[in-house]
Specification:
It contains 19 helices and no strands. By secondary structure, it is an all-alpha fold.
Length: 439
């Protein structure tokens, strides 16, 4: 994959003329704004491709004559491949220039979506989703690294929140548009829209992002020195919070369209507006997440998880009373991404101080283990739907959210203890510090 970056040398070279010509007319502040927009757009297009499957589950199932729960496993497969491949490819980046790597990844992403458009069988469709998943995690990790490197420290939380908001905008605009396109011209056309947008984005990234940026100043970043962050219990507990948060949510979210259509009996003509409304809730979730991150956000999360667990447990009632069901779904939408910015700044704050050689890997932790949770949640959701029907997925998700509540309470306690006794909380810390300082 790294070698593939050479295939985009011509794109990078041709963009030099565009960039240098425009450079005379773009101030540093405007350039930063444009770069921020492009980083958010990258998250948007990656999220659009990932989430679009959820909006067209029924259409794909109908065309390929498979069950909706079987198509739901495409979400599981995508997330598993994403979670497994991302740390492997991320550690291979080492000191390669980030822009050529990102362009290569986005080129493969674009090709994968084009294969999805043309897939003649369900097997080919599955392979195309695997291809997209292989590069999506590394692409968002590099995008987040660009955000960290390009943003002034006082604007870092703002830009991180906006990059995450790219995924919410994909839910607000992308998935409803994809669903609408699917209803009028077929699900393949929705992925063609993604493909065309990806081509435009690829050109813009090549034109306006810096070409010489690398993840650190070290000449050689070894695999062992990067993985050392997993010896820190603050990192490990944070990882578990991410996994169980998204497991609980995706038990339900994967089957949102069947919940609307089959569970609540809502007309299919209303599905696109409902997805758009849900998307606005998730956009608000990401933006409010950024505000939480600036005010000790992790300490506020136990109350959020308490409310969410109660709401999901009541979903069977919501399937009988539509207004109750919609209220529960929108509570889930607003809660969905509140953890994002607080936990990302938690990871990056620890890494920047103690493990600077692991910045790209740390930037990918949220996306890696978010997808572990998505894979687990969608798989469990599929089992629950197959054996207990839609009534079972709300209470099933609530159990995982209650576990998340316990984990975040433990993490807050550990962080507080570490702040008070920074040299005694982690038994491996002295060893970790010694190895880090030796780099």
């Amino acid at each position: 994959m790294i070698i593939a970056s050479g295939s985009f040398a011509s794109v990078v070279k041709s963009s030099t003329v565009i960039s240098s010509t425009k450079g005379a007319f773009i101030t540093e502040n405007n350039r930063f704004k444009l770069q921020s927009l492009l980083l958010t757009a990258t998250a948007f297009i990656l999220g659009f491709s990932e989430f679009n499957i959820i909006g067209v589950l029924n259409d794909i199932a109908h065309q390929f004559h498979v069950s909706v729960s079987s198509v739901g496993y495409l979400v599981t497969i995508f997330a598993l491949v994403y979670a497994i491949s991302t740390p492997i490819f991320t550690t291979l980046i080492e000191q390669h220039r980030l822009l050529p790597v990102l362009l290569s990844l986005m080129g493969i992403f674009t090709l994968g979506n084009l294969i999805t458009v043309c897939a003649p069988t369900y097997a080919v469709l599955t392979l195309s989703r695997i291809m997209i998943a292989l590069v999506s995690g590394v692409a968002i990790s590099i995008t987040m690294t660009f955000a960290i490197k390009l943003a002034p420290k006082d604007r870092r939380a703002w830009l991180i929140a906006w990059v995450y908001s790219g995924f919410s905008i994909a839910a607000v605009l992308g998935m409803p548009i994809g669903t609408w396109v699917s209803e009028h011209w077929g699900w393949r056309m929705s992925f063609l829209v993604i493909t065309l947008l990806s081509v435009v984005l690829l050109i813009m990234l090549a034109s306006f992002l810096p070409r010489q940026l690398r993840q650190s100043q070290e000449q050689k970043v070894s695999l062992g020195s990067q993985l050392i962050i997993f010896k820190d219990w603050r990192i490990l507990l944070g990882v578990l919070v991410v996994i169980f948060n998204f497991t609980g949510i995706y038990v339900v979210y994967t089957y949102l369209r069947p919940i609307f259509v089959s569970g609540m009996g809502i007309a299919t003509t209303l599905i696109t507006p409902l997805f758009m409304a849900y998307g606005f809730m998730t956009l608000g979730s990401n933006q409010f997440s950024g505000r939480l991150a600036a005010h000790s956000g992790l300490t506020k999360m136990p109350r959020v998880y308490g409310v969410l667990a109660i709401a999901l447990a009541c979903l069977p009632l919501g399937l009988q009373l539509t207004w109750v069901g919609l209220l529960i779904v929108f509570i889930m939408g607003f809660s969905m991404y509140l953890i994002n910015s607080p936990i990302q700044l938690h990871f990056l704050g620890i890494t920047e101080k103690d493990y600077p050689q692991s910045m790209v890997l740390a930037a990918s932790l949220h996306s890696i283990f978010c997808n572990v949770g998505i894979a687990t949640g969608s798989a469990i959701g599929g089992l629950l739907v197959a054996h207990g029907g839609l009534n079972s997925i709300g209470p099933g998700g609530a159990i995982f959210i209650l576990v998340t509540l316990g984990l975040v309470v433990s993490l807050n306690h550990l962080n507080q203890h570490w702040d008070q006794h920074p040299h005694t909380t982690l038994s491996a810390d002295d060893h970790v510090r010694g190895e880090t300082s030796h780099q």
